[in-house]
């Protein structure tokens, strides 16, 4: 009996001891895991669970084709910005600014600031479309292709009113994305966003079209202001900083939009993103290539959204349309017989239920084009053929001529590049050189100064300098301009 009790006691002790050992090991293991996790404060974790990838994808949910077609044609746009004297001036103590005036400020030596975004190759000979805000005011623009080749890019032209810019790199045989028809997109349709968010190159995300014709008033906060055209494609594809200028493609890999903005309280993706539709992109790019600037067609009417309260106030029987608040004199709308109080419902047969949709339709045309406008007046459906005009109430197309360098009073005046215009926020000018050997040396002007105004006249090209200075017979004339680093200056010059 004692022997049996002894053996049973030994066995029980072994079981209890083993349990304690296992429990102690698990406690140590949990503690080690906790310690390991605390080494990764950025919430990045390793995963080691390997599963078979031979999954059957339902028809319509396979994004492989669209990704493989579009990814090689989406590039990384890298920009460089020098710190201008105005930047350091803006950080100056307010008392010093008030005491010394606008001309005071010390230049703070700092390194260049860097930025990045995305772009889409639309022509095999190196034309790339991106957002204007991606390259705005950049000193240097570089493009990194999907195959890691790097090129310096030249700015061909910009359109702040649609936030589109066109770049050019000197190379051939590049992969391209063909335009798709953004009009054919339907709410609920799958789309892919391709770009370089957070410097993660060639990133593809998927989502659906959440809405069309969306106006988020983001461009009205820029220099575009009242001329802006916002009729964005809204999607829930994940888009983050760095995606701007990248491609929004359909399941065929066709370009249906240029990713531009996100709706976020934090600055990172929070559910919705917005893209400029390809119908607008293709027109803007075509204008920049053919004319050097965008040809804006205008209906010639001030418009207003219609909601239930406004409709009740005005006695309007429909909510699907755009109310004409005012008609501009000598405009295409006035000549076609449109009046204040009319409600526009369609342009060339395409329904327009809100202002953004109407602006998008008109933005597809150039001055001189005719459109059929459907509208409601006194409860009756009517139509009018409207000849669209430009800001000057003319049907002429404005083509930016290639400015040439001129010599005057011993100095040389050269045209300003589009990249310098974008960087400095100017529209034209004349860059001076050889000041030391000219009559301009007495003013204190330095080489590289860009003249933007002489007295009350704007200088758009070098020929303007000679034309305006010759027109003054005597007295002192003030020359206004800016240096390449952003420093503005004024110089008096005597004539007579």
Automatic annotation (TrEMBL):
Which residues are listed for substrate binding in this entry?
A: 80, 133, 163, 242-244
* Active-site residues, Swiss-Prot/TrEMBL: 133, 163, 244
**What's a single GO MF annotation on this record?**
serine-type endopeptidase activity
> What range(s) does the PDZ domain occupy?
288-352
Sorted UniProt keywords: Hydrolase, Protease, Repeat, Serine protease, Signal
What does the entry give for GO biological process? proteolysis
| Highest taxon of the lineage | Bacteria
- Residue ranges spanning the membrane: these are none
Segment forming the signal sequence:
none
Check the record and name the InterPro entries matching this protein.
Chloro_Bact_Ser_Proteases, PDZ, PDZ_sf, Pept_S1C_Do, Peptidase_S1_PA, Peptidase_S1C
NCBIfam families, sorted? degP_htrA_DO
Protein name in the entry = Do family serine endopeptidase
């Amino acid at each position: 009996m004692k022997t049996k009790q002894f053996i049973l006691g030994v066995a029980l002790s072994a079981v209890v001891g083993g349990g304690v050992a296992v429990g102690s090991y698990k406690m140590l293991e949990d503690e080690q895991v906790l310690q390991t996790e605390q080494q990764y404060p950025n919430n990045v974790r390793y995963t080691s669970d390997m599963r078979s990838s031979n999954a059957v994808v339902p028809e319509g949910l396979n994004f492989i084709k669209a990704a493989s077609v579009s990814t090689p044609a989406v590039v990384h746009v890298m920009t460089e910005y020098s710190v201008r004297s105005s930047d350091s001036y803006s950080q100056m103590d307010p008392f010093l600014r008030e005491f010394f005036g606008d001309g005071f400020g010390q230049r703070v030596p700092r390194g260049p600031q860097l930025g990045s975004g995305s772009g889409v190759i639309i022509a095999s000979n190196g034309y790339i479309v991106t957002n204007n805000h991606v390259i705005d005011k950049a000193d240097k623009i570089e493009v990194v292709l999907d195959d890691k080749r790097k090129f310096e890019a030249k700015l061909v032209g910009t359109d702040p009113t649609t936030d589109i810019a066109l770049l050019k790199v000197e190379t051939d045989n590049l992969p391209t994305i063909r335009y798709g028809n953004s009009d054919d997109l339907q709410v609920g349709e799958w789309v892919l966003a391709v770009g370089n968010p957070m410097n993660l190159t060639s990133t593809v995300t998927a989502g659906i079209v959440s809405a069309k014709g969306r106006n988020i008033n983001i461009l009205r906060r820029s220099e575009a202001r009242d001329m802006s055209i916002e009729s964005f494609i809204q999607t829930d594809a994940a888009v983050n900083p760095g995606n701007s200028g990248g491609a929004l493609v359909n399941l065929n890999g066709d370009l249906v939009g240029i990713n531009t903005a996100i709706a976020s309280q934090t600055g990172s993706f929070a559910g919705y993103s917005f893209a400029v539709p390809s119908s607008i992109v293709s027109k803007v790019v075509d204008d920049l290539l053919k004319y050097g600037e965008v040809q804006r067609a205008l209906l010639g009417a001030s418009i207003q959204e219609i909601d239930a309260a406004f409709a009740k106030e005005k006695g309007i029987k429909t909510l699907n349309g755009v109310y004409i608040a005012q008609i501009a004199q000598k405009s295409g709308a006035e000549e076609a017989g449109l009046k204040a109080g009319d409600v526009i419902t369609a342009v060339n047969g395409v329904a327009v239920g809100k202002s953004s949709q109407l602006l998008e339709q008109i933005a597809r045309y150039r001055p001189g084009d005719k459109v059929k406008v459907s509208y409601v007046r006194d409860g009756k459906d009517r139509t009018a053929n409207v000849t669209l005009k430009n800001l000057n109430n003319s049907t002429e197309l404005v083509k930016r001529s290639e400015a040439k360098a001129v010599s005057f009073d011993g100095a040389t005046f050269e045209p300003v590049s589009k990249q310098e215009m974008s960087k400095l926020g100017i529209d034209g000018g004349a860059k001076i050189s050889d000041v030391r050997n000219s009559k301009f040396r007495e003013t204190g002007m330095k080489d590289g100064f860009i003249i933007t105004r002489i007295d009350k006249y704007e200088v758009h090209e070098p020929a303007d300098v000679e034309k305006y200075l010759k027109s003054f017979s005597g007295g002192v004339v003030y020359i206004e301009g800016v240096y390449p680093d952003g420093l503005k200056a004024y110089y008096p010059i005597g004539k007579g």
